Amino acid sequence: MILTLDVGNSQLFAGLFAQGKLILRFRKTSVGRPSSDELGLFLRHAIRENGHDPADITDIVMSSVVPEINHSLSSACIKYFDQRPLILQAGLKTGLKIKYRNPLEVGADRIANSIGATHLYPDRNLLIVDFGTATTLCVVSAQREYLGGVIAPGLRMAMETLEASTAKLPTVEIKVPEHAVGQSTIAGIQSGIYYSALGLVREIIAEIADKHFPRQELFVVGTGGFSGLFAHANLFDAIESDLVLKGLYQLYCLNAKVP
């Protein structure tokens, strides 16, 4: 079995693959600086409690946008699984042509998403919208050229900014509002967060399609923790909630010569 680990700004997202199929997914907060023992014990416990044997893991592949946790997580993989993880970084085969001015600036999660999307939807112009801590949009051509993208504040970041910067506005649950016009403070905040994100992404998609892919089809893929909120908003051609994990598995296949 292959263990895939994606460390984001808010959560560690893990997946377990057997014979190319994702058979388990689980999460842990990535806030703070957990020790290698904390991480190793958590991973083993989560795998075991879901009916799998940690001893069956033969390889581990990881991506991270939180440098402070990388050493602890790598050490956990070595100590608790006897596996040195394959880390998504410069020098690995990705199947992509990175057109960023400085390719090292592209976040590992964005590369993993792009690898996963080009594997699932080959030979298409792709726009990948990731609703995570930040809302990111990545553009990949049908020729597998990573052209760049957009980075904007995420939904939770917007909510936390409202809470921190105002005296009376409360923390609210982020969900699809019943109406655009909220009839309470909480409903008003929920509407504002949801529709501001929807409008922002819809406008960016239209701009990218018009300016960069005129008279061409642009296939839009949604992913990330909040992508399900927009499932019925006519934003996406497909939603792949596990896209980053699938991308990491394909990264492993590309570099370990596994079919």
Features:
259 residues; alpha/beta; Nucleotidyltransferase, domain 5; 2 domains; 11 strands; 25% strand
Describe, in plain words, how this protein is organized in 3D.
This protein has 259 residues and is an alpha/beta fold. It folds into 2 domains: 2-87, Nucleotidyltransferase, domain 5 (2-Layer Sandwich), CATH 3.30.420; 97-246, ATPase, nucleotide binding domain (Nucleotidyltransferase, domain 5, 2-Layer Sandwich), CATH 3.30.420. Helices cover 37% and strands 25% of the residues. The protein has a 6-stranded mixed beta sheet with strand order 6-9-8-7-10-11, sandwiched between helices. Strands 3-2-1-4-5 form a 5-stranded mixed beta sheet, with helices on both faces. Strand 7 (125-131) and strand 8 form a beta hairpin. Helix 1 (36-49) crosses helix 2. The chain is globular, with a radius of gyration of 19 Å. The protein starts with a strand and ends with a helix. The model has no long low-confidence stretch (mean pLDDT 93).
In short:
The protein is of the alpha/beta class and 259 residues long. It is 37% helix and 25% strand. It folds into two domains: 2-87, 2-Layer Sandwich (Nucleotidyltransferase, domain 5); 97-246, ATPase, nucleotide binding domain (Nucleotidyltransferase, domain 5, 2-Layer Sandwich), CATH 3.30.420.40.
